[in-house]
Amino acid sequence: MATGELSIYNLVKFQAIPPDWPGGFWWHWLFFTVVVIGFVLTMVMGVIYIERRGMGRMQSRLGPNRTGPFGLLQPVADAIKVLLKENIVPVAADKIVHWLAPVIAFAPALMIFAVIPFENGALLADLNIGILYVVAISSVSTVGIFMAGWGSSNKYSLLGAMRNVAAVVSYEIPLVLAIVGVVLIAGSLSLNQMVVAQDIPFILLQPLGFLLFFTAGCAEINRSPFDLMEADSEIVAGFHTEYSGMKFAMFYLVEYAEAVAISAIITTLFLGGWRGPLLPPWLWFIVKVMLVFFAMVWTRTTLPRIRIDQLMAFAWKFLLPMSLLNLFITALQVLADWPTQLIWAMIIVNFAVMAIIILIWSRFFFRLGWGRIEV
Amino acid sequence: MKFERYGIGIAKGLTVTIRHLLRHPTVNQYPEQRLNISRRFRGNELVWNREKCTGCGTCAKTCPQGAIEIVTSTDMTENKYVVDKYQVDTGYCIQCGLCVEACPYEALYFSHAYECAKYRRGELVQGKEDMLDRPERKVSGYFYPDKAKELPEQTMLVEKVTEKR
Amino acid sequence: MAVRTEPFVLNMGPVHPSTHGVFRMRATLDGEVVIDIEPVFGYLHRGIEKLAEQRTYTGITPLTDRLDYISSMSNNLAYCLAVEKLAGIKVPERAEYIRVIMAELQRIAALLIAVGAFLNDCGAYFTPFLYMFRERERIVDLFEMVSGQRLTYNYMRAGGVSQDLPEEFMPALRKFMDMMPRFMDEYDRLLMQNEILIARAKGVGILTGEQAINCSVSGPVLRASGVNWDIRKADPYSIYDRFDFDIPTQATGDCYDRYRQRVEEMRQSLRIIRQAMEQLPSGPVRAELPQLIRPPTGEAYARIEAPKGELGFYLVSDNSIAPYRCHIRPPSLINLTALRDMVRGWKVADLIIIFGSIDITVGEIDR
Known about the structure:
By secondary structure, chain B is of the alpha+beta class. Helix content of chain B is about 15%, strand content about 15%.
């Protein structure tokens, strides 16, 4: 279905800034590369601050408040501390793999931001297959993480890396299927076009899709309750047990850069991206990203971690059928050409459908496996 | 096993944590904010009253760690013991308070000072002069209820309201 | 084609975030599945039993603080009961009540840590742990007020307690008793019905009542398996026969039941403290005793229901100022013997929470 037929969803036509703004191709490239790197680094600092302070307050303590006003410089202090630390490589480690792993893990986390619009048309590359690119790139980090786990020659690292690969492979499917629902409504794969199409944030039209994407996204980047790969109470620090100094800093950066990336994608896909009243668009974007990230911090503070077999069961027995049903229902609605005047009815219907499907499925079909194996 | 309550339990837990976000934190900022320690504080340092001490050595006998060393000589003219050496190795001290309890002449107290960290091991050994009962040394009320009354009241977390903003 | 796999040995500890101290488990794993486990301990051995043979009866009390260092009051109580049994000392009435109040407060404090650490092992990132530490802090404040220290209280003596309660103690305790039930309800709201916790802990690490009895397990772990055995009721010591309280038990004996059991026991402890506060008489708190106790030749075994289970002290006297032999029956060590039966066949993650649900203190295991 072409974009034009779905004009009901973009009543206001935005005048897109030409993709080659502000001049030739190379100027555009240089400018946005700098912006993206700067954005990622500052956002990572911001979210680390939010996580530590927010989590501290939720746990009835203060969080870091010594360095700078309100502890704002704490991420900087952390970074300096960790960079000055000794770089320890285990004797039995596979040196090249051990060295290469953080780089391979870091690059994709940065590359995701190439297609995320900060403002209308303000993005590094307005690919017409933007979301496909995101899905493809984001899983490359796993290779780096598995290399780290393997190269460290540590059993904890290997267990963590194995868990991560298993989780990412399983959760990629519901993640993509949840995205497809949005793509059907928006009628485009370009992230900028999707934002333009969101006169009503898609979280209202796709509540189930949002839940699925949020859950699968959390699992994909190993945020709690799916933080099995670095479960500190079980396998010490998971894949980065044997990393220190600069390399550890890279992994730390990757962890939060991916969290920012998933928050940014959720913002773009479901929360209307940079669109919002009064405030300038880029500020709206940042505020929304922070809010999504805060939700992740909130769940991390509250929830226990689930077990590896339950993680897999949850992906294959719950999220996958849910996302297929969601896709089916969305496709029906789009095919039936839901009238523009009744868009509010669609919201109600979708919320009702979400509640009913989740209730029925968890009541009658979903069972977590029995975890014990006779030995 | 299934998700029997469909996320109700998770939602309840989330409300508890978000409510804590809006509450007062429980912690104190140590070097700036200091709490009053217990009136019966059992600390690292001992305070010794030279006048009351008769050199009986009960404290040294009671000490489970053997950290108290006392050497006395007899003063035949006044018919009493003279304490020549009185030394406590606070590095061995486990702060059990048995010496203070045992002293029959009320000559030994705990000091009310904390933050007694030292840079060298040797500084932990308290000699006779370090332990003297001087007016500027606050004395803990451990085993001496009359001394406890003069000390500031202990700060209790029970008194601090943390549930409401 | 079948993939050829082989089991590998994972050394968990002695330095590991969730081994509760310096405990080591040599786990044989097949992938994530635990095939076998061999506990290794002795990293915190200080020879307390041997040291006790060279110390006076009074001087051993501070040593008992260092056994199970998160429930020092209970250790003091068990030791003092043993000495009193050995020497035939009569304890004043007020001292008995103070001891009960302290022991039950200590039970709440220790169970709070046990529950908090268990939930932390489940992966709830420090939140329940810190909440419960906050409440433990209130109890520790009370202990600091009466004894002057926050961890090694050394408060009880053979023949009573070392000093009377300060006058500001009862108002503070009353305030604590008023706020505690509210906090307990809050903890229940936080995680008791959490679907993830139920999925993680229900049915995991089942210890049947029969197994528990065979392993001579005691305390909340035993009662969670459905065996109604609490020394406070079964063999009342001190003045526990004067109070009205229930012994909660659970049905299946899985990790979730052990968690629930501990929460229920805290509520019962609050009941006991409330009754003891009402009945608290005035009078002396310490029997008149000589400086150095010389019990007659003989032996005595006194046991109490410590927060972790049956804590027993066996003392042999040869009519000198120090015991001839002192043996301690630590609940943690005995409860740990059931670990292997519980964890075999479960995943690594389950190993951690089953281990956490037994609730051990390494200071007590190694002694």
